[in-house]
Design brief:
The complex is a heterodimer of chains A (about 80) and B (about 100). Chain A has about 80 residues and is of the alpha+beta class. Chain A is built from two helices and five strands. Chain A is extended and about 50 Å long. Chain B is an alpha+beta fold and about 100 residues long. Chain B has a single domain, classed as HU Protein, Chain A (Irregular). Chain B has a three-stranded antiparallel beta sheet. A two-stranded antiparallel sheet of chain B has the order 3-4. In chain B, α1 packs across α2. The chains are: A alpha+beta (about 80), B alpha+beta (about 100). Chains A and B meet through α1, β1, β2, β5 and α2 of A and α1, α2, β2, β5 and α3 of B. Chain B: Belongs to the bacterial histone-like protein family.
């Protein structure tokens, strides 16, 4: 079971790392969003640093996920306390 | 071509020697487990991959982009995904243009 979950997460990470989207019906889809190059700053020294373009993972919840989570709102408080919300 | 549940199950079959039906059920169970946790108000942390967080949004004014008509966007609970450092750095290195 643990091995299986490990395999699933590795497959999903590998898929995104090679630019392949993930589509899980009723759960959601994972894709990559492009970030153009920009000039950033070292917050400590104020020095300008050139940052190259990159991709970041993006998740879009599927219909069933959105509906089930939203329906739970009326009856269920959010329990996670450590995510800064 | 996107990665699907069928692909995930196929690999479980190949790698772990589960039979195809078990592999399919396991994939189904995994995603259902995450949904159930979120539905019961819990944040889900998947080490090396990322966190699924919940946020309650207040009602806010919106607009029908077609007609320009003002309609309120009702209060709702949404799921957000925060990729972990490991996934972020693996994806960052991706240089291709295919999506």
């Amino acid at each position: 079971m643990e091995l299986a979950v490990k395999s699933l997460l590795e497959q999903m990470s590998q898929s995104l790392a090679t630019g392949q989207r993930i589509e899980i019906r009723g759960f959601g889809s994972f894709s990559l969003h492009y970030r153009p190059p920009r000039v950033g700053r070292n917050p400590k020294t104020g020095e300008a640093v050139a940052l190259s373009s990159k991709y970041v993972p993006h998740f879009k919840p599927g219909k069933e996920m959105r509906e089930r989570v939203n329906e739970s709102r009326a009856t269920t408080p959010i329990k996670s306390a450590d995510n800064g919300n | 071509m996107a990665l699907t549940k069928a692909d995930l199950a196929e690999r479980l079959f190949e790698e772990l020697g589960l039979n195809k039906r078990e592999a399919k059920e396991l994939v189904e169970m995994f995603f259902e487990e995450v949904r159930l946790a979120l539905e019961s108000g819990h944040q889900v942390k998947l080490s090396g991959f990322g966190n699924f967080d919940l946020r309650d949004k207040n009602q806010r004014p919106g607009r029908n982009p077609k007609t320009g008509e003002e309609i309120p966007i009702t209060a709702r609970r949404v799921v957000t995904f925060r990729p972990g450092q490991k996934l972020k750095s693996r994806v960052e290195a991706y240089a291709g243009s295919e999506q």
